[in-house]
Write a structure and sequence with these properties.
The protein is an alpha/beta fold. The protein contains 11 helices and 20 strands. The protein is 35% helix and 27% strand. The strands form 4 sheets. Strands 3-6-2-1-9-11-12-10 form an 8-stranded mixed beta sheet, sandwiched between helices. The protein is globular, with a radius of gyration of 23 Å. The protein binds adenosine-5'-diphosphate, aspartic acid (ASP) and magnesium ion.
């Protein structure tokens, strides 16, 4: 008897018919004698809608109240999924994240899982139930409801698979697996049979929203092998696992476009030690994640100054602006400019470690497309550039064609 964790994303539970489809799929596995834990997301569009409602009340709502609000999306789906299983005469019980023993830190809207005490899950499984757990949520040790960041149901599934020592972890979504790039953007994208944790992590943190990046980090840390596959057909998906020797033969595994970033530029920042530290410490204290940073030394006369640009997730722009505005008189920069019309284009592959000329080929391809590069950052297995958002999709297609055909 195997223990399987299955996660179904928003589209897969998007309406009652889809929820019944999930119940049928679960029933099939159960008929083979397996124990099943199902993690579900909110129905598609629900989380976005709740965020919209909150923003209509005020632009920067309390993050505690946001978690209270957003956690209701998944709570709706767990109950409906349990009912769909009951309708098939299958014993099933739904649990909130807190009831499933998911304990997090207190960083509202992007809490980290600290530990999982899955006794209740085990007890329900042992009594013959399918256990349905609300994704994306947990509870602090003080009993505050938290959420795990957008796409966080992936993390719930991977973390539960680790805590329960599951035999199999399946992430069901609305595409057949992980592709060389977003198949909705580039029709020639190819499905990958397998991908290493590191490549999946870089793709996910570069905007390939098929997996939440933190969930991949967690899977790597705890060695959870998982499969990304479609809830709408029986096609084999993509296995995500530790890198194997032959994976390095492929130079570029995938291309990702992140349209969810914004750039902040501080103009004429006094060039003296400690200024960058002050700025990024303040952002960190406000729990804002900064991705790329570029500093251009200005060669003008007078007090030396620099322009400092950095990128943040678009939903955090307002909060970042608030922090930066609060530093203006202390630091004495001239102005802060926000740009939401940027896209981050990345290429990822473990083979980059052993092949040269990859950056040159990427930049040449962009030049041929008439795309100007605004910022560049690299890691051992990734090259990212910030470009004009309007050119993002065409640039993605061109770069995909250049490296992956
Ligand atoms: P779910 O609701 O199941 O969590 P998401 O919408 O979060 O699903 O993620 C699935 C989507 O990710 C796909 O519909 C696809 O458009 C997008 N996507 C982006 N990059 C990739 C990629 N490289 N491979 C597959 N899908 C991708
Ligand atoms: N419902 C949450 C979101 O839309 C979590 C998830 O779908 O994984 O981000
Ligand atoms: Mg998702």
């Amino acid at each position: 008897m195997a223990l399987i964790v299955q996660k179904y994303g928003g589209t897969s539970v998007g309406d009652p018919a889809r929820i019944k489809n999930v119940a049928n799929r679960v029933a099939k596995y159960r008929a083979q004698g397996d124990q099943i834990v199902v993690v579900v997301s909110a129905m598609s569009g629900v989380t976005d809608n709740l965020i919209r409602l909150a923003k209509e009340i005020m632009p920067l709502p309390s993050e505690r109240e946001m978690d209270m609000l957003l956690s209701t999306g998944e709570q709706t789906t767990i109950a409906l999924t349990a009912m769909a299983l009951h309708a098939l005469n299958i014993p099933a019980a739904s649990l909130t994240g807190a009831q499933a023993g998911i304990v997090t830190d207190g960083v509202h809207t992007k809490a980290k899982i600290q530990n999982i005490t899955p006794q209740k899950v085990h007890a329900l499984l042992d009594a013959g139930n399918v256990v349905i757990v609300a994704g994306f949520q947990g509870e602090t040790s003080e009993g505050q409801i938290t959420t795990l960041g957008r796409g966080g149901s992936d993390l719930t599934a991977i973390a539960l698979a680790a805590a329960l020592k599951a035999d199999l972890c399946q992430i069901y979504t609305d595409v057949d697996g992980v592709y060389t790039t977003d198949p909705r953007l580039v029709p020639t994208a190819r499905k990958l049979a397998e991908i290493s944790y590191d490549e999946m992590l870089e793709l996910a943190s570069s905007g390939a929203k098929v997996m939440q990046s933190r969930s991949v980090e967690f899977a790597k840390k705890f060695g959870v092998v998982f499969e990304v596959r479609s809830s709408l057909n029986e096609n084999p998906g993509t296995i995500v696992k530790e890198e194997t020797k032959n994976m390095e033969d492929v130079v570029i595994r995938g291309v990702a476009l992140d349209k969810n970033q914004a750039k902040v530029t501080l103009v004429a920042v006094p060039d003296r030690p400690g200024v960058a530290a002050r700025i990024f410490k303040a952002l960190a204290e406000a729990t804002i994640n900064v991705d790329m940073i570029v500093q251009n030394v200005s060669h003008g006369s007078g007090t030396p100054s620099t322009d400092l640009s950095f990128t943040v997730d678009k939903p955090e722009l307002l909060k970042a602006r608030q922090v930066i505005d609060g530093l203006k008189s202390e630091i004495g920069f001239r102005e802060a400019i926000a740009d939401e019309k940027i896209g981050k284009l990345s290429i990822v592959g473990v083979g980059m470690k052993s092949h040269s000329g990859v950056a040159a080929k990427m930049f040449e391809t962009l030049a041929k497309e008439g795309v100007n590069i605004d910022m560049i950052s690299t890691s051992e297995i990734k090259i990212s550039v910030v470009i004009d958002l309007a050119k993002g999709e065409a640039a993605t297609r061109a770069v995909h064609a250049a490296f992956l055909g």
